[in-house]
Please model this.
Amino acid sequence: MSNIGTRWKVLCMSCKKHFSFSQIVWELSLLGENFVNASSSPSETNLRQTCKKVMDLARDHRPWFGMEQEYVLLGIDGRPYGWPKKDLQPEDIFYCSIGADRVFGRDITECHYKACLYAGIKICGSNGESVPSQWEFQVGPCEGIDVSDHLWMARFILHRICEDFGAVVTFDPRPLSGEWNGSGCHTNYSTESMRKEGGLRHIENAIEKLRERHSYHISVYDPHGGKDNLRRLIGHTCTSSIHEFTAGINDCRTSIRVSHHVEQEGKGYLEDRRPASNCNPYAVIEAIVRTTILNKFHDENNGLEIEN
Model:
């Protein structure tokens, strides 16, 4: 514990000296990578350490990520934040809507956006989602592990800001029952070869590799081995089916989506729509790079690196 306490002391001193966000994240990352169990081996929850190793191995491919974090705001009583006493109906249109009777929590999400900009987090957008009180912010593009560092910090800031508004943020993938949409953490991904001329071929190759490892990715795209996504990836409400891998152009009901723009340009990125809103971002980007670049995945039964 003394080692952790020392690092927190250094971090606080760094803040007082007006160090940059990147320096603060560096201190936090060192703290995170030092979480160990009694046998001095990395803790089961210490996923940054292995992610960093994987990103270092893939450095020459220059993997870029952008993550779209969806969440739902709740009141202290557990009801959706700002909802009227008479519940709203899912068939109404709320996506990116305006009006005090349709949008709840805009002051929170705008405050969060400004706070992230002030902190130096690479936040690049925010918008209202398909459920009233459901919002999304985007982080990236970042190279390698940086996107996960920035997303973790953005989540922390969101929790802290919600305190001041008497609200609670939930990253549960399906906090509302019925026909309401769930929440995800769609992950946009590209390598240098995908971004160059002729990159669409490399995108298609990556999609085929992801197809072969669908079960593996589902198992790491939420913190409970796929059980959370089982409630969310149901084949409708703008999701694919958890039981089937699909890919398509501009189709929100697929596992992997490629935009019309990417198809027309013949290069760009792919969007993995499977990660849940409560995913560990280190686990997500590690799995994507293992599958598409390193052609390896982690066998939890014996710890071996297995070739695809």
Remarks:
- The first strand starts at residue 64 and ends at 75.
